[in-house]
Amino acid sequence: MKIVQLEYFCAVSRYHSITQAAQKFYVTQPAISNAIRELEKEFSINLFTRSKNHLSLTKEGELFYQKASTLLEHIEQTSSQLYDLGKQIAPVRIGIPPLLSTIFFPDMLLQFKNAYPHIPLELFEYGSIRAATLVQEEVMDLALVNMHFYDIDKMHSYRIIADHIVFCVSPKHHLASEKEVTIEMLKDEPLIMYNTDSVQNTTLNTLFENSGNKPNVILHASQLYTIKNFISNNLGGAFLYSALLEEDSDLVKIPVMPLIEQDIGLVWKKGKYINSSVGKFISFTQKYSQLRFASKSTTDIS
User: Fold this and answer.
1) What does each C-alpha distance from 60 to 9, 63, 66 come to in angstroms?
2) Which of 214, 231, 211 minimizes the C-alpha distance to 223?
3) I want to staple 98 with a disulfide (CB 3.0 to 4.6 A). Which of 11, 112, 134, 222 is the partner?
4) Which residues contact residue 222 at a Cβ distance below 8 angstroms, ignoring those fewer than 6 apart?
5) d(CA 147, CA 199)
6) Model's pTM, two decimal places?
7) Higher pLDDT, 155 or 99
């Protein structure tokens, strides 16, 4: 027994006509007749009594019609539920370092939600290294990261913006009037550093080590509000992305020499199937960055 055979049989039962049933399903009359004969043969039953231009259900045929109609209705309801299940969109899971999330991500997120209101997002705060690791482990679909970590080539990546690090202090800080600073000048300065899973920490610790100095870290933090409070109260200085402070006049931003360049971008796992929602987010990110940062950065897909 096939579903299509039951559909043909029920149509003939309702129309009392093979011709009308064939027209409904856009098939030939022999296709309808063959389906009914196969049902009668399979179940050893006569479904219709046939007159010259009319078909009538037998008593067995009436009972068969009731059972077949109930079964087809159940199949239709189940099919609708399965299609609805397929339409339930899994959220796109994105890892975001706290500091990076304050640069441009809120605006990008708002525009994505306007463009794709039906795609849910789940955001998780992790440092770049941890976020990238979770992408490799398929716990996250994507991560917004500082791309200067050693195994970036193991992942697909898209550079959104190029930035650089500046040393930020209070206007009362004794270095506030400096035009630029070097790592050697900061060897004894009280410093606020990021949490341990950040790429910036790795970069800065390497620079201090290469200069033969150890940073004087008084606080490890991840929230910009906390870092700025410490700086404003002249408790120490911090290395921050220049883009974080474009409209902040309360802090003094001193260029670090040599320049510490940083690339911020999106990463996802190589070899993993990308569903349509994740694909839409990647494509949107590319278009967004090209429009917003066209004059500030170039892009790189690996």
Assistant:
1) 13, 5, 10
2) 231
3) 222
4) 97, 98, 99, 125, 127, 194, 195, 198
5) 8
6) 0.66
7) 155
